[in-house]
Amino acid sequence: MLANEHLKNGVKLTPKQHVTAVEGDENGNVKRVVFADGTAVEADLVIMGTGCKPNTDFLQNTQI
Question: Can you give the three-state secondary structure of 26-62, one letter per residue?
Answer without folding.
Answer: CCCCEEEEEECCCCEEECCCCCCCCCCCCCCHHHCCC
